[in-house]
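Case study 2.
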Amino acid sequence: MTSSSLFLAAGIDAGMVQRAFGNDVALFKSLLVRMARDFADLALPVSLDDQGSRDKLMARVHQLKGSAGMLGATRVSRFAGAAESALQQDRTLAVVEKSLQQLASALTALGDDAVSLLEGELDPTPDATTATGNGDDSGNLVAESSELRPGRCAGRVP
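Prediction:
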C-alpha cells in the first residue's frame, strides 16, 4: 500500500498534510498522536444532562473540528462540525446522539487506520509510490500509537 492510500484509508488529506507540514513527518505524527489522545474521550459515552454539559461538549467538538482540519483529518473534522451544529441548534437528543455516534466512529476509524501510518516510515509526498521516511523518532510514536485507539468503542455513544 502506498503512502497516499494509507492517508486516504485513514481519512487524511495527504495533499493538505504535504502543504501544512512539508517533509516534517515527525511533527505531523506527533500532532496526530496528540489529537487522538486529547480527544479520545469524545469516542466514549457523554452526558448531556444540562446546558452546561452541552456547552462544554460543543466547545470540545469545535476544538476537535479545528484540530482535525489542521491535520487534514477531513472525515473527523466534518463529523465534529456536524455534532457542533446539532448542539448549537439545540437539536433533539436523538439527533445529537446520532451526530456523536458518527463522530465516535470516525475517531475510532482514524485511530485504527492511523496506526498503519505511525508503524511505517512515510514519505509525506501525496503521490509517493513507496513508503520511506526519516525514521528518527518512529520508536516513540509507535509506542504511543495504541493511544490512537480511543476505547475501541465505535457506535457505543449513548
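Residues 93-119 form the longest helix (27 residues).
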